[in-house]
Every structure is written in structure tokens, then in C-alpha cells.
């Protein structure tokens, strides 16, 4: 889900996110993405093979005022991206020089982070669909 959503954000195809992302988050994303420079938008895309590490940041089970049960999982992702970002982008973990082919052909990759929160209702009879309720790409989507 992270890879698919990040690529759609990068391609500015927000209309395809209606079923995956909460309406509140989608509204904020529409405003932010329209203001992003192309290189930052390119850096949002995380190819599934470029995800280096994932970890859960927070897992919560809670009930609303009507007694409905929800589960929320915050996931953190680290991924490589070849967008043309300046080397001094704050918040980056590291810049890698990856060599493909011979020594004269170098391709720069940035190790970037993203936080996505997934939520699902677990009340009996509720649809088993997960919704993304938070999307953060530090230093890119601010």
C-alpha cells in the first residue's frame, strides 16, 4: 500500500486515492502537493524494491463513543529514491553513490523516510478495509 500510494502522490493522481486515504488527509495532500517542486514530488515515490526497512512505530486499539472498535498502526518506511535532490536536504539519513555497470557510471540515491498510519474498524459487521489516516514524508511534504 505504501508503494502504491507514494507513487500516486508522486504522479499527482490524487483522484485514485479516494478509497485508500481518509478524506481529511486527502484534502491536506491536495493543497501540499500542488505547491511542491517537481524534484520533491519525484522523491515521494517509493518503488517496492527500493524499500530498505520498515518498522511499526505505534499500534493502538481504541473504541469511539458509539462502542465501535478500531485498530491503528503507524508504519515507518526507509526507501531509496533517485530524485534530483540537493545533497544538503535536511532530515535525510544518508546519500549513497550506487555504481551500476562500470566505475564511470554513478547514480546518486537518497535514503528517505516516510510515516503512514493505517486504520481499520474491527467492529463486528464492519468492512475489512484499511484506510490511511496519516501520511508524512519529512522535509518533502511540509
TrEMBL record:
Q: Which PANTHER family match?
A: M-AAA PROTEASE-INTERACTING PROTEIN 1, MITOCHONDRIAL
Gene Ontology biological-process entries: protein insertion into mitochondrial inner membrane from matrix
Q: Name one GO cellular component term.
A: mitochondrial inner membrane
| Official protein name in the record | MAIP1 protein
> Which molecular-function annotations from GO does this UniProt entry contain?
ribosome binding
